Amino acid sequence: MVGVDVRIDPLDERGLAELLDAAVAGADPGEVMPAWPGAVWDDRLRSGFLAFHRRRSLGPDPVERTWVVRVDGRAAGAVRLEPGPDGTEFGIWLARGARGRGAGTAAVRLLTATAGPGSGGPLVARTTASNVAALGLLRALGARWAPGGEGAVALPTGTVDHVQRRGPGHGVGPTD
């Protein structure tokens, strides 16, 4: 991660507008929100992105906490924490221009250092078996496959308890 400055800032309305710009410029809709296969950015999806994050993170009863990932001072993606029955789920996505530079790993380390899991339970992640970047990020954090577990990995640090396969638009998305 030489030469890459990464920080995370709590999501607010200004950050949400910057996050939308980063998503439109560098991610497919299904990578950053629930969307149909082959969806392309248009006014409807832009409004949907804003509504999705306002409802989940900025509304009166948020279901998750979200932070804007800034790479070299610019919004480049998001990390989030959502309490659940199996622990606190974390998710991340990065715009294409920020991928492959170690920013995802740095952002998750910042997330766990500043926010912690929040529920006292394990920090969990969900991704698809085909998401090589997300699996690479989890391995960079110390994850290893657990025998007999469908997609399960464990981190020696205890920051990530397991990974389960999940569809796009949720969990650990395109990273590093």
Q: Helices and strands in order, then pairings?
A:
Elements: E1 6-10, H1 13-26, H2 29-32, H3 43-58, E2 65-71, E3 74-84, E4 87-94, H4 103-114, E5 123-126, H5 132-140, E6 144-145, E7 153-154, E8 163-164
Parallel strand pairs: 4-5, 5-8
Antiparallel strand pairs: 1-2, 2-3, 3-4, 6-7
Number of domains: 1
Mean pLDDT: 79
Number of strands: 8
The stretches of 5 or more residues where confidence is low (pLDDT under 50) are: 146-171
Q: Main sheet?
A: 6 strands, mixed
Domain N-acetyltransferase: 6-167
Pfam family, one: Acetyltransf_1
Protein name: N-acetyltransferase domain-containing protein
Describe this structure in words.
It is a single chain. The protein is an alpha/beta fold and 176 residues long. It has a single domain, classed as Aminopeptidase, CATH 3.40.630.30. The protein is built from five helices and eight strands; from the N terminus they run E-H-H-H-E-E-E-H-E-H-E-E-E. The chain has a six-stranded mixed sheet, sandwiched between helices. A two-stranded antiparallel ribbon has the order 6-7. Strand 2 (65-71) and strand 3 (74-84) form a beta hairpin. It is globular. The termini are close together. The relative contact order is 0.17. This is N-acetyltransferase domain-containing protein.
